[in-house]
Every structure is written in structure tokens, then in C-alpha cells.
Write a structure and sequence with these properties.
- By secondary structure, this protein is of the alpha+beta class.
- The chain has three domains: about 90 residues, no CATH class; about 100 residues, PmbA/TldD fold (2-Layer Sandwich); about 240 residues, no CATH class.
- Helix content is about 20%, strand content about 40%.
- It is built from ten helices and 24 strands.
- Strands 1, 2, 3, 4, 5, 6, 7 and 8 form an eight-stranded mixed sheet that branches. Strands 13-12-11-16-23-22 form a six-stranded mixed sheet, with helices on one face.
- A hairpin with a 4-residue loop joins strand 17 and strand 18.
- It is globular, with a radius of gyration of 24 Å.
- The N and C termini lie far apart (about 60 Å).
- The relative contact order is 0.14.
- Belongs to the peptidase U62 family.
Length: about 450
Amino acid sequence: MLSKSLIEDVLTQALSTGGDFSEIFVEDRFTNNMTLKSGKIETCLSGRDFGIGIRVFKGLQSVYAYTTDFSKEGLLKAAKNAAQAINGNRLIHLSPFVQETFETIHPIQLLPQDVAKSRKAAVMKNAYDIAKSYHSSISQVTVRYLDEEQNVLIANSDGKWIEDKRVRSRLAIQAIAERDNQMETGFYGPGAHQGFEFIENLNLDHYANEAARIAVTMLDASPCPSGKFPVIIDNEFGGVIFHEACGHGLEATAVAKNNTVFANRLGERVAPEIVTYIDDGTLQNEWGSINIDDEGEKARKNVLIENGILKGYLIDKFNSRRMGMESTGSGRRESFRFAPTSRMTNTYIAPGKSSPEEIIANTEHGIYTKYMGGGQVNPATGDYNFAVMEAYEVKNGKLGKPLKGATLIGNGPKTLQHVDMVGNNLGHGAGMCGALSGSIPVNVGQPMIRVSEITVGGTKGE
């Protein structure tokens, strides 16, 4: 991508005013986005993005610059601009590069760039037809397709030199059902760190029918009551609550500044013994998985909470300096336009011993949330509110009528402490996470869990 001699010159220039560490991140990314509505391809966009990010540290000072000018003059200018924010004299010399290699843990069989757009469109049309024909009330179906190939090179003044190819594919299906001036929406968006083989092997009947079923079911839903209830949260994307309200609080970006209730609490009990919370970038071909992070560190499994005890944080290279702790391979960024910081990969609650049937049967009265929607969270406090896409009443240990308009309101760390049953049906859901270093692919996951009490916001008058 760039020659070693040129990268040496750039890293040296970045250290010219007294920095003690410099890094270059070279990215070459290819993307394809397609949207199908009303049975026809509405948009079809392809692009290539190439750029270089340059970072300099001096103690607890960090400076970042980026450029799309990959000429020698352009790169040296960007490195000089970054260096000028550092005051001092050059003391550090580059270590010789040691080229690191690894065996990919996310095998790719079919590069999306090698697949004709017509082949991709055929899968989208199939998904559309399945969802549209689910029920006569389905008025609109939108299918979105995404693939990307990201080639990166990371080198730094400590002698690291490592390259990686990341390939991801995703299909998102949204169905809208209408009846008597009422409109409801269902959504499913599976994705993987995998090539086009993932798309061709998808169980379209399952995903397209589920998106449509959610929308149709909610047409007959009753208004959700408000109050404090035991809440059963199903697997897969149900894990978004703990991703947002707890996961972000375990990232070094917050921990290093004491902007989280989890700071300085290693070894303390923060959850019941049945809760183990993990971030694992090594899960084969999962949407949020990585071979290496965006600082060149190998992916790993980080146990954050083990049997209720806080065991660790997600730490990037810069915040490791602030905290006096080693990087956990958690430095991630959207692209060369962002400096990396600590971020999640595949974060999930580990499976427990209860079956979903047992959890429901042991709940006398409460709310069952099958699919979560979007929400908001204050990362400093963990206070959250999340919309529920599909919910049901639980009465006498059995599922009852569907409910609409449900919102879960609470505090992540406190909700974590109120988990009293954990299922054995671990599942992961694909999503995008936006934070300081941009929007990145992540998985959220959990088995079915029960929280003994959550405030549920419902419909007025109920």
C-alpha cells in the first residue's frame, strides 16, 4: 500500500518535535450499497475510499491528523502538522519494523467485489417477495444490501507492521403493515464478517417472514400498561440495553476519566452471580469480529464481568497510558478520518442454565420483550430508555396478548443487578455503534434474561 521507506519517513517526521510514539493507519475501502423498494432497485452505489491517518503521543497528549494525499510531500506535510502540536525536542528513534502475520479467524470464501450486482439484486428481490407475500396488510417492504472490503496497514514507531483485509456483508429487511389508518413496522438485519457466501446462505424465509410477522402482529396489539414490572428480554438484539447502558461504561474512554459508575471497581460485585459479561472479537465470522484492532493488536476474548464480579475493561493504546493497564485489543475506528479509541466488538451476556420456557413459566405477571427497538443512554450514568418493537403481556406463567407502545426506562448498572434468571439460548444481533471514533459494526447478544423490575412506559390512560 505504501513503501516501508516512505512510512519510516512519515513516522520520523511525526516524532520530530518530541513525541514518544507515532503511528500510521493506511486504509483502502471498497463499498457497495443497494436499496430495493416496491420490487425494484431504487439505489445502487459503489465507492472506494483511500486515506491515511497519522497519530502522535507525548505522555498523555495525543494528536491526530489525516489526509487523502498519499504523495510523499502530502504525507510528510500531514505528519509535520501533527508534530507541530507537540512541544519539545526529538528524543525517540524508530524501532526496526517487524512484520507481523496471523492466520485469519474469519475465513472469506467469496469476495463481494467478485460478485455481479445482478446476483446481489436477485437475493434482495427474493427477500422482498417473501416479506411482501406474508400477509395482505403488508403495504411496503424495503430491502437494503451492504458489503465492504477494507484493507488496512498499521505501522508504528515501536516497530509494528501489520496488514489486514476485513470483509463484511449485511442484508436488512423492513416491512410495514397497514390497516384502518394504523401503521406498524418490523425489521431484521443479519450481518457477518464474511463474504457474499453469507448472503447466499441466509435463511431468507426466516428473516423476511419475521420482519413481516412483527409488523402484522403489532397491528392487533393492545396499548402497553405503564408501571414497574418484571421484564423478560429475549435473546439476540435484546442485548442492546446492556451494550448501551453497561458496555460503554466499561470502555476505557469513560473509565480513564472516571466518567462511569464502573471506574475503580475491579474486583467488586456489580451483578448477580448468574451474570457473566463478555466482549469477544474472535467469534468466527460474526459481524463485530476482528482479526486485529485498528491499532494492530490481535483480537481476543475479554471477560468484563465474571459471575457478577467486575474483572476488566476494554482498553485502547492511548487510554492504557492513562490507566496504567495493557491494551485489550479494543482500539477501533470507523475509518482513517477518526483516531481510534476503546470500543466493543461482540458483547454479550453468557448463557445460563434456565430454558426460555422455564423463565416464562416462572413469571406470574410481567412484560415479555421479543424484539428491541432504538433508544438513548447517558453513558456517564447508565440511564436509558429503549423502545420495544414487539412485546407481550405475561400472565400466570404464559404469554398473553401483544402490546404496543412499550418503552423500557432505567439505569444500566442497576438493571444489571436485578437480573434474576438467565436463559440457555444465547444469540447475537448485528448493529452499528456510534461513538467518539465513528460508527463501527458490533454485535449485541444475550440469551433470554429476566429482570425482576424495570420501569415500563406505556400508553397514556393505561
